[in-house]
Amino acid sequence: MAKAPIAEGRGGISGWFERQLESLSPRDRRLLLGLLGFGGFLFVFGLWWALSGVLSELGERVRGANDKLGQILVLKTELDQANQRLAAQEDRLAKFRDQPVSAWVEHLAQDHDVQNELRSVDEVDRESEGSLEQIQYKVELKKAQYDPMLDFLYGLESSGYPAQIEVATIKSSLGKDKSRVYDLTLEIVVYQVGEGG
Fold this sequence. Notes:
2 domains, alpha+beta, Alpha-Beta Plaits, four-stranded antiparallel beta sheet, 4 helices, 197 residues
């Protein structure tokens, strides 16, 4: 049995395709061309659809990353501003480090004419968090007149010293001359930068 040669006349497979095309009727050639055109169109459309899906997904990932980057930049700006405010507050607190609380309170009492009524300025508690210290003091005035006592309270709150009145207890009674006098007990929190700050 003899094998038929693959290539006759023209070379190889391309010659075989040409012979097959020549053997088709004009109608079959148009159908084959239409089928190849439609197949090419489907191939290009499928490729476009697959690539557009991939590109769309990549675009979403890029947009998501850009959104996150924007949020990170906003948070970094807020952090930088907070760090600047913190440094400014630490500098402000450091100015008062060498001024004892008792001297500050005694000076205010003298300025508002209640130095004789000032009985005590005692440290009650001390807490540290990082470089910030919160020190609680108990301040007592006994038998103070109303207006000087209020001026003293106002001076405590408005002096710029890093302190805050947390609890104020006022008790009234009659003095020796039958006028009202007041006992004032304050719980004050003083903020200081610790030795490491």
